[in-house]
Request: fold
Amino acid sequence: MTNVVAVVFAHNERGRIGTTLEILTKYKREGRIKNIVVVNDGSTDGTKEAIEKFGVIVVNHKTNLGKREAFISGAVQAKKLGAEVMLSLDADIVKFPRKTLENMVQSVTTRKNLMSIAEQHEVYPMEEPSDRTKVTDLHSNAQRAINIKALDPLFNGDPKWMDLLKSKAKEPSRAKFMDYNSRAGPARLTADSETIQKGSKWGLEYALNKLIPPNKRQLLSSQIMTRPAFREHGCYGPQGPLSNSNPQAQIYGREIVQGRRELRTKRAEMLWALHGKSEQWKAARKKQLGLKALKKRANVRRLNRK
Reply:
């Protein structure tokens, strides 16, 4: 039996990680997975307590170091456990079919592949997978099986691996995103600041795609369903909710943001009229809005550093 270690990366996933661990624990009881490791990357919302209920192996980071550092910690732990295959998974999985697990493991053990990537769909509980829910950007698809031999350069301290996987590594440039998306037709619409921020947030997948050659990895048709990323903010299309990785979702998202901005401006104008356009009140309001903008920019910088 292949020694499969599932590694789950979690940062403030208290309300989501339970479903993922329930699925993986079931497969552990069946003998399909040998061990489950959760890398708790500096969570502050009670994720640690939510994990402890499942009796899995936990690697705790005192602060949020980012997903690439979490991957290194998880890989080292998987190596210690004698893993032959490491499953690299997000903490918000809602459906992980048994057949998908079998195909992922088989792809990196019976063939020459070093990594296999499941077909990821961001779905609501009652929603069926479709082209609309499919994560089409390879750099955003995080559900992978990796032959542990592929990580030997990491364990040996290979400079190229360490450079791309350490948290301070450079992110993919705008030009690379433009080139990547230009081959996907309409996806070129995503080559803006939002996409570059995605590269920053999901830099682990970008790094793995660079480090493991295309001829050594396989894209599977087997599906894994995860919770929709950021769709609570209202990314809806004509036929219902869209995956945030879908370019059309990002267009709708920007339209919603613009609409909210216009609404805030109208409310401010009404308040100005109500207060008789007092110069003193306008100065105070301007200062308040300026402080909010500064706080927002600080939050954006903090997210980018992660």
